[in-house]
Every structure is written in structure tokens, then in C-alpha cells.
Amino acid sequence: MKVGVPKEIKVHEYRVGLTPGAVREYVAAGHRVMIETNAGAGIGATDDDYRIVGGTILTSAAEVFASSEMIVKVKEPQPSEWCQLRENQILFTYLHLAPDPDQAKGLLKSGCTAIAYETVTDPHGGLPLLAPMSEVAGRLAIEAAGSALKRSAGGRGLLIGGVPGVQPARIVVIGGGVVGTHAARMAVGLGAEVTIIDRSIVRLRELDELFEGRARTRFSTIDSVEEEVFAADVVIGAVLVPGASAPKLVRRSMLSSMRKRAVLVDVAIDQGGCFETSHPTTHADPTYEVDGIIHYCVANMPGAVPLTSSQALNNATLPFGLALANKGFTAVLENPHLRAGLNVHRGRLTYEAAAESLGLPFSPIEQAAA
Ligand SMILES: NC(=O)c1ccc[n+]([C@@H]2O[C@H](COP(=O)([O-])OP(=O)(O)OC[C@H]3O[C@@H](n4cnc5c(N)ncnc54)[C@H](O)[C@@H]3O)[C@@H](O)[C@H]2O)c1
């Protein structure tokens, strides 16, 4: 198959759909991969790095779109990209269609077959192409907290791990899923005193075994959240209620009872945030203060480390991308997990939850593919 990788054009997006290592795998499997010039610049991969592994460099996105049967990207296509997609062309990327009616319209109009990373499933009911970015965000959350805790950044002037004879920071992680677990691992590794709060007892049992006493676990109630937040130096917001906005677990009225200049890192900001006082920020200006509490609410945290993020994303997408390149649309029909990723096919919306949110008609895959 002819596979195309355009340069990402969303503002401040430095990741790339296929790393040179991934291109080598596609080429080894007999596919032709065309990469837009400078597509890998954000991760330090030169055009020559792609040529060495057998990729072909094209000078414009237009050429990549025109000559490829499958486009592999990172972010949802931008308006200038919708019109370059066409029927019988596969698009494999993050889409986040539900809150984006213009995107849905653009893709439906193009007639392309769009498979969204974020809805591809695995046999354990997980979302394998979303998880790597949660891992990155979770780990980054502690780095972000460490920076924000510095006095020069407005924080309490506290070192996360303390030093011998001096208390470490007290870190509370609300939500013990992928983000929360990776945040807790980093915090424990740095020597912080860590508590993880979750509303799933099953998850709390798993975490208890995983951390073997190096992190405490607590069931999520209004009481436990209040008690822990009031005593914390850092609170990481990492809850997710699938398909819904994040619950507001820390209210503004609670801030005045917290330690002055404590830090809130709201990783769940992409779902509206789990602190009442959160609003999205950017890497250029990541923090702000409300009632003496430092807030960090960057909505695309993995964008800060595009090299790590691109590699982690490519590791996860590779088997699915190769299946698509090997078998085309048949891979979607044969593999239930790829099938779960199908959002748009030949002008029809094939992902029920997105169709519902958008108020547009839903077509089951059998109907759309007929
Ligand atoms: N800001 C970013 O750049 C970025 C990057 C990646 C992920 N995220 C976001 O981080 C959030 C967490 O993602 P994840 O992959 O860890 O999700 P996940 O499903 O793996 O984990 C969420 C956890 O929250 C728990 N939870 C739900 N309601 C709760 C409550 N009331 N109290 C305590 N715990 C509760 C769940 O039981 C679950 O264990 C999501 O909103 C995700 O979109 C943000």
C-alpha cells in the first residue's frame, strides 16, 4: 500500500505520524511510505533519516495526500486537509469527533474512511492508542508539579523528595487509572509521600498490590477528597468518567483551606477539568493562581515531549497501521478492535457515541460498507 505522512499543521504540534523506525517496519512489510519534507523536524528526524529507512520524501502535503492510499497522522485533520482527503482513502489518526461538528462535516464530505486512534480497543476493554499519551501526561504531571512548587514559580518552595531529615512533599493523586498510576510512580520514585484516591475498589486493590505500601490508597468520597486535598502540597487531577465531563471534585470554596501556594495539576482538563477553578492553559504560559493556589492545566501535555510521545504513540499504532496497510478496509472488517476505531466511512458516521453527541444519523458498519 502507498502510505502517506504529512507534516502536522495544528498549532504547536511537534509529533509525527510515523517515526523513521516505524517507516522501516512498513517498508520491510512491502509498503511504500511517502513523507512530507520536514515532517519529522519536531522530533529531530531529518528527511535523510527517513530516506535511509526506505521512505520517499515529497515536497508538499498536497503531493502526500494525492499519492497515498492511507494517511497516518497524529492530530485531527485541519480544514485545509479535509478537502485533500477522498473516497477509498484511509485516514488513521486522533479524531475526537464528538465535540467537533465541523470536523465531522469535513470528513463526511471527503468520503474517506477515518479510523480514530482514541476509539480503537484492546481485548481487555482498554483504549491502547490513548493509553501511551496518558502514560506520558501522568509522568509529566509530577515534573510540572516539581517546577510549579519552586518559589521562583510562585510555589511553596518545596523539593518533592525532600532531603534526609526534611519532609518530602505530600502528593495526592485523584483518579488511579493510567494517568494517575504513572504520576504516582514518578512521585514515589522521587521520594514523595503519595496517596491515590479512586472510586473503584477493584482499582484500589490493584494499586495497593502494585505499590506494596509505597503509596497509600483511599476510596473517593467528599470526606476523603477534602481531607487529603487540605493536607497536600500537590494534587494531581486524573479522573475520567468515559464519555462525560470530569466531575468537579475540588471546589473553589476548598482552596482557602489548602496549604498556601500548593499546586493543582489538572490533567483531566481535556475533559473539562476536575477542579472548579481550572481553565485550559498552554505550554507557553502553563500556570496561574487562584486564591493562593497554583494551577497547571495544560490540555496537550504530551506535546511538550514530542520525541518520547511520538515513539510511544508509534509503538502502539504500529500493529494496527500495519494491519491496515496489509489488508486495507478488510482489516477493519476482520479485526473487532480496529472496527471499534472506525468513525467515518464513505460519507457515513459509523461511531454511535459520536453520532449521538453530534445529533447526526448513525450507520452501523455493515450498512456503511454495503
Ligand atoms: N492534559 C493532557 O494532556 C492529557 C493527556 C492524556 C490524558 N488526559 C486526560 O487524563 C484523564 C485521565 O485519563 P486516564 O487515561 O488515566 O483515564 P483512566 O480511565 O485510565 O482513569 C481514570 C480513573 O478515574 C477514576 N475515577 C472516576 N471518577 C472518580 C472519582 N469521582 N473519584 C476518584 N476517581 C475517579 C476511575 O475509576 C479511573 O480509575 C482523562 O480526562 C484524559 O483525557 C489528559
UniProtKB/TrEMBL annotation:
Where does the Alanine dehydrogenase/pyridine nucleotide transhydrogenase N-terminal domain lie? 4-137
Q: Which GO terms of type biological process are on file? A: L-alanine catabolic process
Residues that hold NAD(+) according to the record? 134, 198, 203, 220, 239-240, 267-270, 298-301
The organism's superkingdom is given as: Bacteria
Chain residues that bind substrate: 15, 75
Active site (catalytic residues): 96 (proton donor/acceptor), 270 (proton donor/acceptor)
Q: Where is the Alanine dehydrogenase/pyridine nucleotide transhydrogenase NAD(H)-binding domain?
A: 149-297
Which reaction is this enzyme known to catalyze? L-alanine + NAD(+) + H2O = pyruvate + NH4(+) + NADH + H(+)
Q: Keyword Nucleotide-binding: yes or no?
A: yes
Cellular component, GO, one term: plasma membrane
- Which InterPro entries does UniProt cross-reference here? Ala_DH, Ala_DH/PNT_CS2, AlaDH/PNT_N, AlaDH/PNT_NAD(H)-bd, NAD(P)-bd_dom_sf
Q: Which GO terms describe its molecular function?
A: alanine dehydrogenase activity; nucleotide binding
Q: Which top class of enzyme applies to this chain?
A: oxidoreductase
Which keywords belong to this entry? NAD, Nucleotide-binding, Oxidoreductase
**Which Pfam families does the annotation name?**
AlaDh_PNT_C (PF01262), AlaDh_PNT_N (PF05222)
List the Gene3D superfamilies hit by this protein, alphabetically: NAD(P)-binding Rossmann-like Domain (3.40.50.720)
**EC number of the protein:** 1.4.1.1
The UniProt entry, under SUPFAM superfamilies, shows:
Formate/glycerate dehydrogenase catalytic domain-like, NAD(P)-binding Rossmann-fold domains
Q: Which family does it belong to?
A: Belongs to the AlaDH/PNT family.
Protein name from the UniProt record: Alanine dehydrogenase
Quick one: which gene encodes this?
ald
